[in-house]
Design a protein that fits this description.
The protein is mainly beta and 192 residues long. It is built from one helix and 13 strands. It binds protoporphyrin IX containing FE (HEM).
């Protein structure tokens, strides 16, 4: 695939463009006692071009708009929806992922992208308290179900993506590693 679209070079992000479907997702989330509850899921990822951005006449960025919809395998109901951008700075190789979820939590995670053989690995992290790659959440969430860290590792190989997303929580008085994993196949490059 040509990495230039409408005159914009999206670099390693180009390989993500399209719609992806996963049928073997797995979620580990806290139950009402703060113990692990497991839910198999179906998920859908879309990555669309979002154009270039120039910051302070100096920084050149390119980005993709991202939407992740997750449905419970047992009933098809949506139980997670995540939107944001994947942002890349070609001059430095800096990779960033902004995301927001409807529990009223926003994350800006930073990291890098590397190529190993035929795999491209996108890896980003954020931590509460950071002024840069950090987490912002509602007063309720900060007090009762605080997200303290976020790590996403997405491995792309041809038309297959494998990701693992770890959201560190402090909920019901204890720490909990909320983990989501899935393998997805690209179903189309062309999005409306
Ligand atoms: C595939 C991705 C994800 C799925 C399927 C998922 C699903 C879930 C589920 C099932 C719960 C248990 C509470 C409930 O039943 O509603 C939960 C809790 C939670 N999730 Fe996620 N989640 C995902 C990603 C994330 C991300 C990226 C964040 C934040 C950056 C996040 C933040 C939270 C928080 C703060 C809670 C605790 C809320 C509570 O249990 O009261 N989740 N999630």
């Amino acid at each position: 695939m040509n990495s230039s679209i409408d005159g914009v070079n999206y670099g390693p992000l180009t390989k993500l463009i399209g719609k992806w479907i996963g049928e073997k997702g797995f979620d580990i989330a806290p139950d009402a006692n703060g113990d692990p509850d497991n839910s198999p899921f179906f998920d859908e990822l879309t990555f669309r071009v979002a154009g270039p951005a120039e910051n302070a006449e100096e920084q050149q960025l390119v980005s993709l708009r991202y939407h992740h919809v997750v449905r419970k395998r047992k009933n098809g109901h949506i139980f997670h929806d995540q939107i944001g951008h994947w942002i890349f700075e070609p001059s430095s190789g800096l990779l960033m992922h902004s995301l927001t979820i409807p529990r009223a939590v926003c994350v800006l995670a930073g990291g890098s992208v590397e190529t190993k053989g035929d795999e491209t690995i996108f890896d980003v992290k954020a931590k509460t308290g950071s002024e840069t790659f950090g987490i912002i959440q509602s007063p309720f969430m900060a007090e009762k179900a605080r997200t303290t860290a976020f790590h996403m590792r997405l491995v792309l190989k041809g038309d297959e993506i494998n990701y693992e997303e770890t959201t560190s929580l402090h909920i019901y008085g204890k720490d909990f590693e909320h983990v989501d994993k899935s393998r997805l196949k690209r179903v189309t490059y062309d999005l409306d």
